[in-house]
Amino acid sequence: MKKDTVLVAVCNQKGGVGKSTMTIMLAGYYHYLKGLNVAVIDCDYPQYSLVRMKERDMRTVEHSEYFKQLMVSQYERINKKAYTIVGSKAENARDAAEKLKKNGDYDLIVVDLPGTVNSSGVINTIVNMDYVITPIIPDRIVMQSSLSFSTTVWDYAKANKDTPLQKFLFFWTRKDTRASTEVFDAYNIILQKLEFTVLDTVIPETNRYNKELSLATRNYFRCTLFPPPAKLLKGSGLAELAEELLTKLKL
Fold it and tell me: What value does the mean pLDDT of the chain take?
């Protein structure tokens, strides 16, 4: 008997908040470090940036003895291949998830939705997920757009009781610890009044999330084939976010 697969959409109406990066980071953490079977659906049509990223990572490994050995050691340790990434139009993501579930045994399928998601087909995809994870940054323009869209979708989900969507989960990212907390504090209050869940974990502003696998260096953080190295994981907020989400997503 197959397990119940949790379907999660990562989305925000505004771009530049790190949706795709967090999709990759969380998928890698759960698949390689926590023993979960994970798949990712990349809805960045037609570029499919996450599909292309995995292709780049694989080419890098092919041309590096160091990364080849790292992959062999990882396979011997966890006895599983890299997680699956498939491309799909956003409005077809639920069908893509069902196809994955039919052909595999997944604990978690993460759908990375594009920045422009304000269409009936995409909204239908979102409300047919189990959860929505929304990264947000303390910026008034971003927050106004995020709240307007999320409220619309959540009201629709509540009005249609047969939809699977259980919760919107917001978390703060790219937060500069030296900056004023005025916007941060104000929107936390607003989110709570709107009955949205705000995670305790806050991802700090750090450039380590931009470090991809490369032949020029062994230092990487964002990767589709390996989890983030322990030395860079510390202080990134990723482990704390992933562990908090384990509980929220009932994994």
Answer: 91
